[in-house]
Amino acid sequence: MERLQKVMAHAGVASRRKAEELILDGRVTVNGKTVRELGTKVSSSDKVEVNGIPIQREIPVYFLFYKPRGVISSVQDEKGRKVVTDFFEGIEQRIYPIGRLDYDTSGLLLLTNDGEFANLLMHPRNEIEKVYVAKVKGIPEREGLKKLERGIRLEDGKTAPARVKLLSLDKKKQTSIVELKIHEGRNRQVRRMFEAIGHEVLKLKRERYGFLTLHGMNTGDIRELTPHEVKQLRTEAMKNS
Q: Among all residues, which ones are annotated catalytic?
């Protein structure tokens, strides 16, 4: 479900602010009924008309993007830094990222123009697993890794239990490669979890999102999800709803 004014703006009817004025003026109907509430939400199956004319919604699109480091997970940046949508030249639809990856984090990121789909995947209760590989300073002790597995207390609350695997270590350089599997998506969560056990993250990559991987892709590559993959993601998210 998406807010009515957002759906209207995405369909190119008007800016979001102008769409709100049209709603308040009683010029918008949903399934034949006039709507004047700005908080109204509609689904993809609802029929929306403005001044008696049905709006033409964008065809939903779904992309998998191998985000490089040094790119903002947004559609614009006030500081003029590179954003993920800069890689999608020629795409007519107004797409945006599902969730985010930090500026210094690379890896798998999904983008879409389907707000209902994005909200479904991002809802915490739907518990879609994300797999990260981190290069950290130092060599974590077993007890530290167990803390991550049990859930660790951060300033915004305790994390859910994680699955952790020490992949390799370099005693000479005093660095380690650790795989972390979580289903939450808090701001800078993986980095903060490692910092909480005394290990700074030097490099971080998201390698998997649900069943999706970066197999066969290079940094900056994009591919469209297949209808089957989109359906599978919906199913995976809804089984925990």
A: 102
